[in-house]
Amino acid sequence: MFRALLLIALVPAVVYGNVGRACTNGRPQATNVNILGCTAPPCDLVRGQDVIAYIDFTTDRAVTSMTTVPTATALGITAPYPLPAEFADTCAWLEGSSCPLSANEDVTYRLTIPVLPIYPLVNLSIEIDIVDQAENSVSCFVVDARVVAAN
């Protein structure tokens, strides 16, 4: 019985793992980054499917609006990784909270990243910078990933 309870308790730890690392330039770091189906980087991004991530962070100031700004680096080239407008509006995807946010507020953000079928099979790093209404970083993290073909 104890083994069964232990297994049930450990399943979420196996399915989810903090896969984010800090951004450069002292930008505020996410507390936790969980990507569904990824327990350790590099995370597989399956062509033709959406990647779902849950990002926990704490605001260091009052925020009225936020936008998600992804950047991808692959093969030595860094370029914007555009999100559809409905996914780039960070405030629309907060779990159990909404904008405006107070200073020192703990929030969870559900991020959806579409992986288009035309993307090349490549290893990359994706930087996700969540910026406020003045385009100052509220939270930032980097995930190492690879685009893979659907099975």
What's the short version?
The chain is mainly beta and 151 residues long. It has two helices and nine strands.
Strand content: 35-45%
Q: What would the CATH topology be?
A: Immunoglobulin-like
Rg of Cα set? 16 Å
CATH architectural type: Sandwich
Structurally, how many domains make up the residues?
1
User: Strands of the largest sheet, in order across it?
Assistant: 2-9-8-4-5
Major sheet description: 5 strands, mixed
Shape: globular
Number of strands: 9
GO cellular component, one term: extracellular region
GO molecular function, one term: sterol binding
Pfam families: E1_DerP2_DerF2 (PF02221)
Protein name: MD-2-related lipid-recognition domain-containing protein
Observed structural traits:
signal; Immunoglobulin-like; disulfide bond; sterol binding; 4-stranded antiparallel beta sheet; mainly beta; ML_dom; ML_Npc2-like
Description:
- By secondary structure, this protein is mainly beta.
- The chain has one domain: Sandwich (Immunoglobulin-like), CATH 2.60.40.
- 12% of the residues lie in helices and 42% in strands.
- It is built from two helices and nine strands.
- It has a five-stranded mixed beta sheet, with no helix packed on it. A four-stranded antiparallel beta sheet has the order 1-3-7-6, with no helix packed on it.
- A hairpin with a 4-residue loop joins strand 8 and strand 9.
- The longest helix has 14 residues.
- The termini are far apart.
